[in-house]
Amino acid sequence: MTVTITSTEAMAQAIVDMHRATLALPVPQNAMPPAPASDDPVFVAALQAAHTLGFIDADALCIARAWSTRTRRTGQFDAVHWPDEPADFDIAPFPRDNAFAPCPQALGLYAVMPDAAWTIRMARAGVPTVQLRFKSGDAQAIRAEVKAAVAGVHDTGTRLFINDHWREAIDAGAYGVHLGQEDLEAMAPEHLDAIRAAGLRLGLSTHGYAEMLIADRHSPSYIAMGAVFPTTLKQMATVPQGTGRLRAYAALLRDYPRVAIGGVDLGNLPEVLKADVGSVGVVRALMTADPLSDAVAEWTTALERKIA
After folding, report:
1. pLDDT value at position 2?
2. End-to-end CA distance of the chain
3. What whole-number distance in Å separates Cα of residue 285 and Cα of residue 182?
4. What is the CATH number of the domain that holds 210?
5. In terms of Cα–Cα distance, which of 194, 191, 181, 277 is closest to 234?
6. Structural domain includes residue 170
């Protein structure tokens, strides 16, 4: 279904009307911003609409460019279908020469833990993917924690990602490394090359379109998307995205393993899995579970039922 509209303002309003229910943030909507100077009416309309729906400036710009590219490619303006074709976002096809080692499309239950002891506990409880997110300024303590975590999950079948500490992850023989956007920005190209050359997988965090496109340029092993729901465990740079945006993000990143993270629990898990993600990141729900084995079994069953 396509909509033929000639007015820039009418095109912008049509986009907002079609997608307000699923993609707008749960906050009072902004008034339609003034049109920027451009000779591309679709770009202008999509940019205005994205701002009205509450997307931050960097993400609104990505959306507007994609909408304009799709319109030129198809020869018609379509307000109904949110853009999700990778080529319209300048996402290159696979395979790629710079791709990191692959990991399963469905990483399943993904526990993010603060130290080696918790990491090992999750692995022994049967969690298939675990991330060690150990925060310390003590280099010796970091090396010890990473080494202990890698040794502790050995022979459990658990995939262990190390957050941030990539040198220690390589030295200890971890399964992979996970980086946030700030960590990625601070990484020199030769450091990423070292992770790739060592055969470690790379996971990257994202919080919207602009960060997803930055992540995609590095061809990581998986991409995490969040925060889906409010969370008190980490100070987030963006507000919770909601499941509507998660579905849009997952559709665009369909060629990657996708991890949804941030405030996910068993109550909202069914709605999260409708977004076609193969993994969910969990912290509090597992750390407070008693007994842990029952919680892991419940989460795993719910995930496997949907993924299958």
Report:
1. 47
2. 31
3. 26
4. 3.20.20.70
5. 181
6. yes
3-state secondary structure at position 153 = helix
Q: What ranges make up the beta strands (E) of 71-158?
A: 108-113, 129-132
Work out the number of other CB atoms within 10 angstroms of the CB of residue 57.
11
CA 80 to chain centre: 24
Structural domains counted in the chain: 2
Say which amino acid occupies 87. A
Do residues 163 and 62 share a domain?
A: no
Task: Say which residue the tokens 């202008």 belong to.
Answer: 44
Are both 16 and 116 inside the same structural domain?
no
pLDDT of residue 39: 84
Alpha-carbon distances, residue 248 vs 24, 137, 209, 240, 274 (angstroms)? 12, 38, 10, 14, 11
| 224 belongs to a structural domain | yes
Q: What is the mean pLDDT of each run of 10 residues along the chain (308 residues)?
A: 66 95 75 71 94 93 97 96 98 96 97 98 98 97 98 97 98 98 96 98 97 98 96 70 97 98 94 95 94 95 76
Give me 183's structure tokens: 């960590």
Q: Which residues span the domain enclosing 191?
A: 108-307
Q: Is the peptide bond before 220 cis (omega within 30 degrees of 0)?
A: no
The pTM (predicted TM-score) of the whole model is 0.93
Compute the C-alpha angle 149/203/290, nearest 5°. Answer: 50
Are both 43 and 140 inside the same structural domain? no
Amino acid at 296: V
Residue 138: Cβ within 10 Å count: 9
The answer to whether the beta carbons of residues 110 and 279 sit under 8 Å apart is yes
